[in-house]
Design brief:
Elements lengths: L9 E2 L3 E4 L2 E5 L3 H10 L7 E5 L5 H10 L3 E6 L2 H13 L3 E5 L11 E6 L15 H10 L1 E8 L2 E2 L10 E15 L5 E12 L2
Parallel strand pairs: 4-5, 4-7, 5-6, 7-8
Antiparallel strand pairs: 1-2, 2-3, 8-11, 9-11, 10-11
Helix pairs in contact: 1-2
């Protein structure tokens, strides 16, 4: 099964809470604004975004990266309906109601923004190891393409198998509401480039 329908504890324009966990919060917006503004120079033509959430990153990708094609995969039905509304306002956006692993092999992207929420405890998705995930993401990138994801905290940025890690900048932002209701002010702008 590639899609799910969830009952959120809270779902509005500022926060998504499911099963007692913050899926996404508007408090992430300052960080994402800094991230995509800083990476604007990349000017990717084709972007794959994994997870829509509140649409914060999608709107900022449109604003700063301005891709010719912006494919967004979302697995949760209610959030996908929000994604469809967003796509109606942005001509380059192609919404997909499916797990990102279903992307066709011939698709190649210049930039992948990987920010899914792990609904696996719900039990409806097959699990993928970190190695399998890294391999699949690498297959979807052009040779010069980049993989990007949020990094919260001032600790080490985890390496991704088959990629070189680049920490562009570390910065502090207003407190971000994390999944476990803690807060975080330390973030990093990070990307990974495929090893040859």
């Amino acid at each position: 099964m590639n899609t799910i329908e969830l009952q959120f504890d809270e779902k509005n324009s500022d926060v998504l809470i499911w099963n007692g966990q913050v899926v996404m919060s508007r408090t992430e917006e300052e960080y994402f604004e800094a991230l995509f503004a800083r990476l604007r120079y990349l000017s990717p033509s084709k972007v794959l975004e994994i997870g829509f959430g509140l649409g914060i990153s999608a709107a900022l990708i449109q604003k700063h990266l301005m891709p010719a094609q912006h494919d967004i995969f979302e697995v949760e039905q209610g959030i996908y309906m929000d994604l469809q509304e967003f796509a109606n306002r942005h001509a380059s956006v192609r919404p997909f109601f499916s797990a990102w692993q279903t992307v066709q092999n011939e698709e190649k992207y210049d930039f992948i923004f990987y920010d899914p929420f792990d609904y696996i405890p719900h039990g409806q998705f097959p699990s993928y190891s970190k190695s399998e995930t890294a391999t699949r993401l690498k297959q979807l990138l052009t040779p010069s393409g980049l993989l990007c994801h949020p990094h919260f905290g001032d600790g080490d940025v985890p390496d991704v198998e088959g990629f070189d890690t680049v920490i562009v900048e570390r910065l502090q932002v207003k407190p971000i509401r994390m999944a476990d209701e803690s807060t975080c002010e330390d973030v990093a702008i990070v990307y990974h480039q495929p090893k040859a």
